[in-house]
Structure prediction request, 275 residues.
Amino acid sequence: MPDTSTNKLGEFLRAHRARVAPADVGLSGGGDRRVAGLRREEVAVLAGVSIDYYTRLEQGRERNPSAQVLDAIGRALKLNADACGYLFRLAGLNPNPTSGSARDLVHPALLQLLDSFPSAAAYVLSPAFDVLATNTIAAALLSPFDGMTNMVRVLFQHPQARAVFVEWPTLVEQTVHALRLNAGYYPDDPEIRALVNEFLRTSPRFRDLWQDQTVTGLTRMFKVFVHPAVGRVELTYQTFDVRDAPGQQLLVGTPEPGSRSADAIAYLGSVHANT
Prediction:
């Protein structure tokens, strides 16, 4: 049957309210409860809004909630990131992703996935482009920058960056434009803000790229490395969002099968694994 409801937001709120037990949010479950889950007034108190306002929202009589109100209701109903995004879209707003300390923690399952790419360079970036985790091959490729783990700093400050990255001008453009995209997603992120402010002061090239207002994500990229141990390595990178850690991205770079780059990657992986 087609969904012809005119109050999809209210239906969504009622369904999720029914799934939250009072004990889940520190409330007593006693008393006369005619419905499962939380009462409307309990959600209102937890979200810091009036009971009348929440009731009108659920009944479809209030159709313009603010992002702050939706954030608060999402927390009260213990919604995950996907459900919060869906809540925003039902209200006609774009999701308001937030970042926190958890965004710097790489899940053990993702760490295990990195090691499942035996012939590719795979690593995880934070929203501020800190390298959070690498597999053996990625660690070997990035070894010339040992001691520097933020890719913006590597590109603009490390003395070997222009020698290792053959297409340095293109790569810095992609990186700065992607950092601007992340700054839009996470406007309150202190690490992104500090990084941008620092480079606006210290790097004319960064400042020019930042001020041109171009916004693009890291999608498919072609990178050419000149590694001190194996020479030229050509890789095609694909970027994947990490769904359970908003802001994290998994990058996987693969060489052309049977190419000299594939041999170089295999050699780097074997040497680095034994060091």
